[in-house]
Write a structure and sequence with these properties.
This protein has eleven helices and 13 strands. By secondary structure, it is of the alpha/beta class. It folds into two domains: about 5-130, Toll/interleukin-1 receptor homology (TIR) domain (Rossmann fold, 3-Layer(aba) Sandwich); about 135-285, no CATH class. A six-stranded antiparallel sheet has the order 6-7-8-9-12-11. A five-stranded parallel sheet has the order 2-1-3-4-5. The model has no long low-confidence stretch (mean pLDDT about 85).
Length: about 290
């Protein structure tokens, strides 16, 4: 999933240097001069890129703050922040200038005196919002879900992937830990290895997460009612039988913390759908 860079073309030399350094650190960036072709609709392409990007870097300079294009891109980024309730806009200060009041309240990466220090700050910020293997999503203002993904191979050489979720509320004395372990068969393992050999390891994992999300959208009973501290377990299979791709899935969920005397409802199917929707933008970006 790319990082969109909003800037004035008067700052293009700085932006080219910034983008090159981001690419060297394995970040995927979207810059209009790199992505637009003759005949493209500029408005449509930029609007699509902003919607599909995980983050929007705003290069703050005297020229960009006067640019109508930059103002529109900044407004689109803040609108996504409000809608998705997560950080989208990452300000980068290139020089002292007058800036909109809603930018003044954000921390920024300072490039005025030291490029390397500024780069380190922007890389740290990008890592928090673009990772495809961990993150946080808000379900309600007082309730959030942290998640992480890890993977490897079994002793038999088959690929496996694990999703871990921690549901937590600000005003409850407990958390819920849910682990979803996915074991690929030999055909699915071979497809993962091919992607990895091509240099696209993340594309080897992506179909597994998408398959789980699809399964969750088709099956509305993927939930637990936890009434004690003992783990609850669900098992099921998914994949694509037409291609001989099978995933064996084991889901374990448990309640950790103070016993309130009330049952806890965990909709892990909704978690899978949320992760799918966050990651499926990667497919569009790759294409």
């Amino acid at each position: 999933m790319p990082v969109f860079i909003s800037y004035s073309h008067q700052d293009k030399d700085f932006v080219d240097k910034l983008a090159a350094n981001l690419v060297m650190h394995k970040a995927r960036v979207w810059i209009d001069r790199w992505e637009l072709n003759v005949g493209d609709s500029i408005i449509d392409k930029i609007q699509e890129a902003i919607q599909e990007s995980d983050a929007l870097i705003i290069v703050i300079s005297s020229s960009s703050m006067k640019s109508e294009w930059c103002k529109k891109e900044l407004s689109a980024g803040f609108l996504r922040e409000l809608e998705e309730k997560r950080v989208i806009v990452l300000p980068l200060l290139l020089e002292e200038c007058e800036m909109p009041i809603f930018l003044k309240g954000k921390q920024y990466a300072d490039f005025r005196d030291d490029f390397d220090k500024g780069l380190m700050k922007i890389l740290e910020a990008i890592a928090k919002v673009t990772s495809d293997s961990q993150g946080r999503f808000e379900k309600q203002p007082e309730y959030s879900v942290d998640w992480a993904m890890d993977w490897g191979f079994t002793d038999d050489g088959l690929f496996h992937l694990r999703l871990t979720f921690i549901d937590q509320g600000k005003n409850v004395p407990y958390v819920v830990l849910t682990e979803i372990k996915i074991f690929a068969n030999d055909v699915a393992t071979e497809k993962y290895k091919i992607r990895t050999e091509e240099g696209n390891e993340w594309l080897g994992r992506l179909p597994i997460v998408l398959a789980l999300g699809d399964f969750a959208e088709q099956n509305k009973d993927l939930h637990f009612v936890l009434d004690d501290n003992f783990p609850k377990i669900h098992r099921f299979k998914t994949g694509d039988p037409n291609l001989d791709i099978i995933y064996d899935v084991v889901v374990t969920s448990r309640w950790i913390g103070e016993d309130t005397g009330k049952s806890v409802f965990i909709d892990y199917g909704n978690h899978l759908i949320t992760i799918k929707r966050q990651l499926e933008r990667s497919v569009k970006d790759f294409k």
